[in-house]
Design a protein that fits this description.
Shape: elongated
Number of strands: 0
Radius of gyration: 29 Å
Helix content: 55-70%
Largest sheet: none
């Protein structure tokens, strides 16, 4: 007669990233991350409310706040799991929150990448094919998340080996897909930089353009590193027994490639003020809306540039427009023109006064 573990839900039998939490290690570390994510949540919600009151709508701050709340919940559940290590239901909830929350950061970077690409290539970026492709991607993200949650729950409520194999395949697919999603902003931005531009750059938000590029690339690379490591560790060690985990499944790797990377990105968004840098006018629906010129933005053969020229301008002299004008100098130039016009007007008035005086003198004679 074979032994049947208590359940359902049944305790896991294979090793996973982070392993079983313990009071001595996981509670202190989780408490620190809980505090950090709490600070991040308060900061992003404060930014969101402050901006909303001055009609500066930046919904992404609310999205990041939601992400921080999911991470706070994950830390709380891991602490509870450490205190009650035999409670399979608590472990199940903790694992679900750990796996699902980071998607909000992936979507945030995808939205930033869309805005950057639309600014560099308004006609292509606002094309229906490009828009519908991202809509389909977001739908696929939601469906994949639902599949992952279902497979995780189902694997805890069955002992059938074939069902567990299918659940593991779904898990591997989901983690691989999310790793690809986390990486997508990087090729989108690079392709946008290398493609020849046929219209002027529609700069949005505040700050230098190249700083926006570097912020997006750096955060995407960090999140992709974490997602790729999680997927790779599951591919390599997902079938190891729970009593013999691999080194790459240690607690240190769990906290570094999950929460440490994420909290760095959360605070990066606060410090660089993405709510100012990546803000676009409300109701933007087509070319020209980022600059407030609407449909007046047209294709101009005179401003067509090659991919190498575009990349050089953005990464080295990003403030230079396609016609060679530096936007920062435009204001000074206009002031100079106004000053010259003022001086010319004063000179003309002086001459007119002198002429009038001379005419009056002659009349008197």
């Amino acid at each position: 007669m074979s032994f049947k573990p208590p359940g359902p839900p049944y305790p896991p039998t294979t090793a996973s990233l982070g392993g079983l939490p313990t009071k001595g290690v996981d509670i202190p570390i989780s408490s620190v991350f809980l505090l950090l994510f709490l600070v991040g949540a308060i900061s992003h919600m404060t930014i969101f409310v402050t901006n909303y009151r001055r009609n500066h709508k930046f919904i992404i701050s609310g999205v990041i706040f939601g992400f921080c709340m999911t991470r706070i919940t994950a830390q709380v559940m891991r602490i509870v799991w450490a205190c009650r290590p035999r409670n399979v239901k608590v472990a199940l909830v903790a694992n679900i929150f750990t796996a699902a929350g980071v998607l909000l950061l992936f979507v945030t970077n995808l939205l930033f990448a869309q805005r950057v690409f639309k600014a560099m290539h308004p006609r292509s970026g606002w094309h229906s094919i490009f828009t519908y492709s991202f809509t389909a991607l977001y739908v696929l993200i939601v469906l994949t998340l639902a599949m992952l949650i279902t497979s995780v729950i189902q694997s805890s409520f069955t002992l059938n080996s074939n069902t567990k194999r299918i659940d593991r395949d779904i898990l591997l697919y989901g983690q691989t897909f999310f790793a690809v999603v986390s990486f997508l902003p990087i090729p989108i931005v690079i392709i946008g930089l290398l493609m020849p531009r046929r219209s002027r750059l529609e700069k949005f938000g505040r700050g230098r353009w190249r700083h926006k590029i570097w912020i997006l690339l750096a955060s995407s690379a960090a999140l992709c590193l974490g997602a790729s490591f999680r997927a790779g560790s599951n591919y390599a060690g997902g079938k190891r027994p729970i009593t013999n985990p691999a080194r790459y499944q240690s607690k240190a790797c769990f906290y570094i490639f999950n929460y440490a990377i994420e909290i760095v990105v959360v605070f990066l968004y606060i410090l660089v003020r993405v709510d100012e840098r990546f803000w676009v006018p409300n109701g933007s629906k087509g070319p020209g809306d980022y600059t407030g010129k609407g449909p007046e933005v047209k294709r101009d053969a005179d401003v067509e540039t090659s991919g190498d020229e575009t990349l050089a301008r953005v990464m080295h002299d990003e403030e230079t427009t396609l016609d060679g004008t530096n936007p920062e100098d435009i204001g000074e130039h206009e002031k100079g023109m106004e000053s010259e016009k003022g001086e010319a007007s004063m000179t003309q008035l002086t001459r007119n006064g002198a002429d009038n005086g001379s005419g009056t003198g002659k009349t008197g004679d």
